[in-house]
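Workshop exercise sheet. Pairs work together: one partner reads the sequence aloud, the other fills in the structure field after running the prediction. Swap roles for the next sheet.
Pair: D.N. / O.F.
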Amino acid sequence: MNPIKMTERPAHRFASILAVSALALGLAACGKNEEPTVGQRLDSAVEKTEQAAADARVKAESAMNKAETKMEQGAATAESTAKSAANSAMGAIDDATITTQVNAGLAKDPDLSAVKINVDTVGGKVTLNGPAPTTAARDRAETIAKAVNGVTSVNNQLVVTPN
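Structure field:
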């Protein structure tokens, strides 16, 4: 046997093993870059669709909540406006009712029924204008007006004018 060839053989074997290992690793790495299978692509598409549907559901719920909040705020504003309008209307009705009741009370008094007394009511405040035959009749007109339910004050501007 040739002594030189003997020493070269282990190095040659080692180099061959290294080359085969590198080739095997290269082939294994190439297999990882392969295109996904139809099943893998389908699974990926299903997963993306499910995620998009979940995102859309979250956005829709958020939009619904915002819309409900705005509707509730609008309803509260409308309710407040309606109550304010109703209170104004009730105030006008109450003022008209007060004026009617004061006029009816004045008409029942024998000294005041024959005279023309103007009764104005605004916000429960009654103003009496016109003539009164006597100071006592003038004072009675104020007492009659104060006795009506809903009257908050009386501004008596009746002028005593004897007949």
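Discussion prompt: The chain has one domain: 38-160. What would you look at next?
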